[in-house]
Amino acid sequence: MDVIYVLIPIVLLFGFLVVIAFIWMAKKGFFEDLDGQGSRILMDDDDFPDAPKHPSTASEVSNEKTSQVSSSK
């Protein structure tokens, strides 16, 4: 029965941390566009031919664009 004196403060602390995390997330805008993420995953990326497929290719594309801009000057 003595364990209840340890568990109650732990649960209260955990609940307080959850409320703080919820308030922080609401202020940062995590709950503003709930439908956008669901619809963006269904969209096809082939509609944008200039969009890079992978993050590693994004750096290559940006390097190519900067080299083209610097060579045209």
UniProtKB/TrEMBL annotation:
Residues 56-73 have a biased composition (Polar residues). Pfam families: FixS. InterPro entries: Cyt_oxidase_maturation_cbb3. The keyword Transmembrane helix applies. Residues 45-73 are annotated as: Disordered. Keywords: Membrane, Transmembrane, Transmembrane helix. The chain crosses the membrane at residues 6-26. NCBIfam families: ccoS. This is Cytochrome oxidase maturation protein, cbb3-type. It comes from Thiosulfatimonas sediminis.
